[in-house]
UniProtKB/TrEMBL annotation:
<dbReference type="InterPro" id="IPR002104">
    <property type="entry name" value="Integrase_catalytic"/>
</dbReference>
<keyword id="KW-0233">DNA recombination</keyword>
<dbReference type="InterPro" id="IPR010998">
    <property type="entry name" value="Integrase_recombinase_N"/>
</dbReference>
<feature type="domain" description="Tyr recombinase">
    <location>
        <begin position="108"/>
        <end position="296"/>
    </location>
</feature>
<feature type="active site">
    <location>
        <position position="248"/>
    </location>
</feature>
<dbReference type="GO" id="GO:0003677">
    <property type="term" value="F:DNA binding"/>
</dbReference>
<feature type="active site" description="O-(3'-phospho-DNA)-tyrosine intermediate">
    <location>
        <position position="283"/>
    </location>
</feature>
<comment type="function">
    <text>Site-specific tyrosine recombinase, which acts by catalyzing the cutting and rejoining of the recombining DNA molecules. The XerC-XerD complex is essential to convert dimers of the bacterial chromosome into monomers to permit their segregation at cell division. It also contributes to the segregational stability of plasmids.</text>
</comment>
<dbReference type="InterPro" id="IPR050090">
    <property type="entry name" value="Tyrosine_recombinase_XerCD"/>
</dbReference>
<dbReference type="GO" id="GO:0006313">
    <property type="term" value="P:DNA transposition"/>
</dbReference>
<feature type="active site">
    <location>
        <position position="274"/>
    </location>
</feature>
<feature type="active site">
    <location>
        <position position="153"/>
    </location>
</feature>
<dbReference type="InterPro" id="IPR044068">
    <property type="entry name" value="CB"/>
</dbReference>
<dbReference type="Pfam" id="PF02899">
    <property type="entry name" value="Phage_int_SAM_1"/>
</dbReference>
<keyword id="KW-0963">Cytoplasm</keyword>
<dbReference type="GO" id="GO:0051301">
    <property type="term" value="P:cell division"/>
</dbReference>
<comment type="subunit">
    <text>Forms a cyclic heterotetrameric complex composed of two molecules of XerC and two molecules of XerD.</text>
</comment>
Amino acid sequence: MKWEQALTDYKHYLRIERGLSKNSIENYSYDIKKLILYIETHAIKVSPIIIDTHTVKDFIYSVSKSLNPRSQARLISGLRNFFDYLIFENYRTTNPLDLIESPRIGRKLPDTLSISDIDNLIKAIDLSHHYNGVNLGERNRAIIETLYSCGLRVSELIELKISDLFFEEGFIKVTGKGDKQRFVPIGETTQKFINIWIAIRNHIDVQPHSKDIVFLNYKGGKLTRAMIFTITKQLVEKTGLHKNVSPHTFRHSFATHLLENGADLRAIQMMLGHESITTTEIYMHVDRSHLSDILNKYHPRT
């Protein structure tokens, strides 16, 4: 079996058997492509079926010099999953990563914004901003409000459809990782801003493949992930906010603020679309003062 064929088969497995999204599959494939490039560059005559631990170790050492411990751990995990797949398909009997340890890393806590930070970012949006006759200011306000108020991933936001909006019921249908769908509550304020944008959107010449997409660019096409990052970056610079803010920060802030105000962790898990509760539990570590307040309020011995 050649490397290219092994990678192609693995990507089919991730899409069909695991139900992963296109972005997730590309992330899984990235480190395998780096391994293939390393083997080709060094003219190593080895197939994915017979490659040994020594060769994999040399590769990891060569690329890890420029990686932090977290990236090294992700690299090792990605390769281990690939070779586990080859074992599953009976191409191999052992995993060359079995004897390779991942670096110890601390649990990374997500960055969060305060409520006043979010208010200031939204207030900084120029609602009169037009480009080619399209009011992009109103669109950007609706985007930031939706990211924060519904806790969406960027990929979920740009794929949000008009047919997914159930405002009378107070929910939107979100398609998350692995095409798994969930219903997320949406508040009246966010509904109002989306409706303002949709009224503007109705006057845009929408491209055929984007007829049902909520957030569009001025050309009537679907927005890219990069555009959402650009919108966020410009707002942060405009407000002079000295925090490391990305679109995902609004999602983290959504979950943290819910927890701080007494929301149930299981409910937060469902709204975020986390498959495992352990992923959601990271928010338990964000605000320890909140946990102390709960103990003081509810424990009989305090």
